[in-house]
Design goal:
By secondary structure, the protein is an alpha+beta fold. It folds into two domains: about 35-200, 60s Ribosomal Protein L30, Chain: A, CATH 3.30.1330; about 220-385, Tubulin/FtsZ, C-terminal domain (60s Ribosomal Protein L30, Chain: A), CATH 3.30.1330.20. The protein is about 35% helix and about 15% strand. The strands form two sheets. The chain has a five-stranded mixed beta sheet with strand order 2-1-3-4-5, with helices on both faces. It has a five-stranded mixed beta sheet with strand order 7-6-8-9-10. It is elongated, with a radius of gyration of 27 Å.
Amino acid sequence: MKQRQPEDIRITLLSIVLLLTAGMFLPPMTAAQQTDSYVYWRQIGIQAARQAVGMMRDQEGIESLLWSLSDDFIVLTNAGYAEIDGRGTMGALDGLSSYLKVSRGDNDLIEVHSDAAWPLWFAVYHKNSGFCAYLQVDPAAIDPQEDRWAALPETLFARQELARIDAAHLYANAAELSQKFNDKIFGGNEFRIVTIVNGKTAGAPLYAIRAFEFHDHYCMGVTSGLLMGRYIVEFFPLASGGKYFVQTVQPWCKEDALVVLLNTTPGKKGYAVSLATDDDVAGWPDWAVDGATRSMDAATTIIYRLNPASNRWDGQVLAFVWANTGCPNHGDSTINMVCNDLWYLANIDRPEDFIKVLREFELPAGVTPQSLARPGIDPILALDALAQ
């Protein structure tokens, strides 16, 4: 028998090593991806995407626009939050992504917060044409076994609607679109879909989209929180090792944006809220009202900052300065909001223009923001007393 040469032996050993280690560089298959449930819901996401594109292809005048660019679509959905008979729907996100080439990383697959009992819906927006296809799943059409081999029924979607909702079209056809919104063509999701897609199309930054997702729509209230959060980070920054505590005395939509931007959450004991009434505001010292004729123009949020070197807290009492956007009244709250949203979005990089500092302070040694957030304490009056 011919004796094997050392070179042959080395090649054989190298081949064995390569075979044994090849699996180390392959992406792991998660348990969820191996289940019928995951595959079933992924197929539903694909079907929603396929059907949405089909609805657009049937719309005269936009066929040639479809697929003209790889990033033509923005997709909104509450998949992953919505549940049907206690079953998760997260797999649908991967179906949408695979068919439409949208993704979380590219910020064009937007997961809109909802409670688990809300109907599962998909909104596919085509940026070049302004058309949006809306599909809402019929729970009765869902296979109880979530069988990956089961054919999806033609009745999968209880509602299918197509409408053009880009800002220019909204303004020019306000009466027509207002009627459609009143008829709930998007299953009651009209406001959130219309505001978010127009904000995203107009260039809303990533941090803003995260706030829209959490808040479940885009409005001037959440914009005020975005501007306040940006102001805090830029003009009241933390030292290394420091932390914020937010105490709001007049809460509105801005709280959700502040939670997203600052990661100061009630669960981590970094956020407190009290509900000041008009009578409470009327009893505040002059510095906290600053001549405001509306409660919402007075002090609204107190931001505290821990100095890790001294272990003491300083802070600012903030008010939001609402602007005159110059938007006309289009006779519809959703369309009016889009106009105002886009005005604020164009000024998102100038937070200092919208935030008024009513008072700066330092808490005495041993006093923490949490001590001013106890039940029955008005923090504005408490801060005023500490300054005496």
